[in-house]
Design brief:
By secondary structure, the protein is α/β, with parallel strands linked by helices. Helix content is about 35%, strand content about 20%. It contains seven helices and eight strands; from the N terminus they run E-E-E-H-E-H-H-E-H-E-H-E-H-E-H. Strands 1-2-4-3-5-6-7-8 form an eight-stranded mixed sheet, sandwiched between helices. Strand 5, helix 4 and strand 6 form a beta-alpha-beta unit. Helix 3 packs across helix 4. It starts with 20 loop residues before the first strand and ends with a helix. The mean pLDDT is about 95. It comes from Castanea mollissima. GO terms for molecular function: hydrolase activity. InterPro entries: AB_hydrolase_fold, Dienelactn_hydro. This is Dienelactone hydrolase domain-containing protein.
Length: about 240
Amino acid sequence: MSSSQCFENPPTLSSTCGEGTVQDFGGLQTYITGSPDSKLAIILISDVFGYEAPNLRKLADKIAGTGFLVVVPDFFYGDPIIDLNDPNFDVNSWLKVHNVDKGNEDAKAVIAALRSKGVSAIGAAGFCWGGVVLVKLASSTDLHAAVILHPGPITEDQINDVKVPIAILGAEIDHMSPPEQLKHFGEQLSAKSEFDSFVKIFPGVAHGWTVKYNVEDESAVKSAEESHLDMLNWFTKYVK
């Protein structure tokens, strides 16, 4: 997880962007958008830059516009990575505190909170750090579908444990999850007949492209939007 690509192009965080509201949900401060009465919910699990990233909230609002209740929890308890150039900041110490096992437990509490409010089907998307959290969640049937986007380090064993329909969207330029590895995961998954899977490599883009794109770069926006559409189609197909 300490690969430099994870930490490139940090977003300018904003607690006020988006059409939703921030509420305490499942024990975490959570950006919530969409119909509160929807029986279908999507959890977005952020990268290391956290739940205030504007492009992530914009994506949450886009998904909510199709009828889902969308929750984006603050898995870092107000402590996302902000300034990697700070000489007092130590990435490895941060990752020890904000480890994916803790993220996995926190995500289970969010799932339980959604169930308690009457949600009947739940999907989740995980970005980089969030993808590592999500592959573990996908080893149970708590979720109806999972979409992992430019994940951090995941293993063959974790892929082998997946039990729900899963899509993996990867970048052509990614040292953390190289295309060859993701294609191998796709072969592993396609051998499982009990659920559907999908692996797609996006040409000409780098790790993080789905949420860390420059909004003024037309090509970058187009690639990001293509990944968002693939994700949305996956959720529409299986979270119902």
